[in-house]
């Protein structure tokens, strides 16, 4: 017959293990040393089982001087639900917006403790890279796109209201070098092809002035702020920009995935600029 030791019984049920200690203790004339010897435990363990309660006491410390303040924890939970960020991006976001330096592990614990749900994104597996990045020459391949700042999909409601009330620019123009991720940005109140032509010209001239000599190719969509799908207009623009050794290359219809590099910058703008700084303007 196998006899279960005190330590094995304690793993099954701490309460039953202490009840056994009390029975042995009473059967041996309340002798602490003898009880400890029979059960193979320390005398202090016998005293705790006899004179304390049967349930385990909480191991939570009485004082936690480094514990995160409740108001900071409320901010973490609120911003996590509002933005959908997880611990890594949320740590950077809180530092930039509130000046709070909180470690990623602390934020992870707060989110887990408050059961903040994680937002998931569907991604397609097995897709090829847009470019051969190892062979890519700096300032040779660009992506060009615009962003409607009041699209009411990616920013909190209060940010949109602030931008409307203070009549901030409605449109953001972006051109990014794929190899170096160098980005050129401008803002406007209107969206038309005149501004599109001016933006491309300014960026191209700036690059040429700063000794960028190679041929440049700009990938863009078929929006009305550029060539709008017009073959005649595209040829006219390319003829003009050929003097700067620059070529415009529109993407095919319904091929927005080819603009993945510039689209990611829109998301970064939302998270690390507009969400934080728009209401300060």
UniProtKB/TrEMBL annotation:
SUPFAM superfamilies: Homeodomain-like (SSF46689), Ribonuclease H-like (SSF53098). One of its GO terms (biological process) is DNA integration. Keywords: Membrane, Transmembrane, Transmembrane helix. GO terms for molecular function: nucleic acid binding. It comes from the Bacteria. The chain crosses the membrane at residues 191-209. PROSITE patterns: INTEGRASE (PS50994). Residues 134-281 form the Integrase catalytic domain. This is Transposase.
């Amino acid at each position: 017959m196998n006899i279960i030791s005190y330590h094995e019984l304690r793993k099954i049920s701490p309460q039953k293990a202490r009840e056994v200690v009390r029975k042995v203790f009473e059967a041996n004339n309340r002798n602490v040393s003898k009880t400890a010897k029979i059960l193979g435990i320390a005398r202090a363990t016998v005293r705790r089982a006899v004179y304390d309660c049967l349930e385990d006491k909480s191991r939570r410390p009485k004082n936690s001087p480094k514990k995160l303040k409740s108001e900071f924890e409320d901010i973490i939970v609120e911003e996590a639900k509002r933005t959908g960020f997880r611990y890594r991006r949320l740590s950077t976001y809180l530092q930039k917006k509130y000046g709070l330096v909180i470690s990623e592990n602390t934020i992870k614990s707060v989110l887990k403790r408050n059961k903040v749900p994680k937002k998931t994104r569907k991604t397609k597996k097995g897709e090829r890279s847009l470019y051969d990045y190892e062979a890519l020459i700096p300032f040779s391949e660009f992506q060009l796109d615009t962003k409607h700042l009041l699209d009411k999909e990616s920013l909190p409601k209060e940010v949109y209201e602030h931008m409307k009330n203070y009549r901030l620019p409605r449109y953001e123009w972006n051109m990014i070098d794929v190899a170096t991720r160098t980005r050129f940005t401008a803002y406007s109140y209107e969206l038309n092809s005149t501004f599109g032509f001016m933006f491309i010209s300014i960026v191209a001239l700036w690059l040429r002035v700063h000794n960028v000599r190679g041929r440049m190719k700009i990938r863009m969509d078929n929006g009305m702020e550029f060539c709008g799908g017009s073959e005649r207009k595209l040829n006219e623009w390319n003829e003009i920009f050929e003097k700067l050794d620059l070529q415009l290359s529109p993407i095919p219809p319904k091929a927005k995935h080819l603009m993945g590099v510039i689209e990611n910058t829109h998301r970064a703008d939302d998270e690390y600029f507009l969400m934080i700084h728009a209401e300060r303007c």
